[in-house]
Structures are given as C-alpha cells and as structure tokens.
C-alpha cells in the first residue's frame, strides 16, 4: 500500500531534498506552501503523515499544527524548525507531534525519517 505524505513548506530546497530522498520508496508526496490550503487539503484527504515546516505562507507551522490537531488528532506530524527555541519547542511537543527536526537536515536525520515513515508507519495510526 502506498503511503501518502503532505509536505507543508515554503522552503524549495527542503521540498527538493525530501522528494529526492524518498523517490525510491513507494510514497505519494504532495507539497503545499500556504497554511490555509494545507488545512483544506488535510480535511479533504487522508494522509499517513504530515510534515510541517516552521515557515509557511499565511500561517506559521506552529499555528497550523494547533488547527490540524483539532480536526485530525491522530495524524502523525513531523515538525521541521530552523532554530532551536526551547519555549516554542515545548509548545509544539505539547501538541503531540511525532518528531521535531532542526534544519539543516543531515543524512542521518533523513535516514531516520525514512525508517520512521516507511518501516514503522503502519503502527502509528
């Protein structure tokens, strides 16, 4: 079964890297840059994972996660931040995210992310 990922980011390089790293896997990756469009997409479609960048058009990643949690409380969310901010990280973790990564994402983090999604994804929902 093909797993689906919704990637919410304005970072073109992050999008390219994620798509490239997962290109050999059986995954469907949709990318949306605007936070409000992400909300509509997540309400209309079932995704196995949501990857949210800190910066989006229209909403911050943190605001988006708070909204998504109300409508899709069980979707595994991976949050990608540009810098380590303890207070913001604490608030994000309280929203029940699965994983928080810091940019720049290195090869080991991508491997961990791939293993999490491809190998263990069936056990998370």
Tell me what you see in this structure.
With 125 residues, this protein is an alpha/beta fold. The chain has a single domain (3-123), classed as Response regulator (Rossmann fold), CATH 3.40.50.2300. The chain is built from five helices and five strands, in the order E-H-E-H-E-H-E-H-E-H. It has helices at residues 12-21, 35-44, 61-71, 86-94, 107-119, and strands at residues 3-8, 27-32, 49-53, 77-81, 99-102. The protein has a five-stranded parallel β-sheet with strand order 2-1-3-4-5, sandwiched between helices. Strand 3 (49-53), helix 3 (61-71) and strand 4 form a beta-alpha-beta unit. The longest helix has 13 residues, at 107-119.
For this entry, give a set of tags.
5 helices; 125 residues; alpha/beta
* Number of discrete helical segments: 5
Please name the CATH architecture: 3-Layer(aba) Sandwich
Helix share bin? 40-55%
Derived from helix and strand composition plus strand pairing, the structural class reads alpha/beta
Rg computed from alpha carbons, rounded to a whole number of angstroms: 13 Å
Count of discrete domains: 1
CATH superfamily: Response regulator
**Fold-level CATH name:** Rossmann fold
Q: Give the DSSP E fraction (strand runs of 2 or more residues).
A: 15-25%
Largest β-sheet summary: 5 strands, parallel
Strands in their spatial order, largest beta sheet: 2-1-3-4-5
What are the secondary-structure elements, in order, as H or E? Answer: EHEHEHEHEH
How many strand elements?
Answer: 5
Distance between the termini: 14 Å
Uncertain stretches of 5 or more adjacent residues: none
Mind telling me the CATH class? Alpha Beta
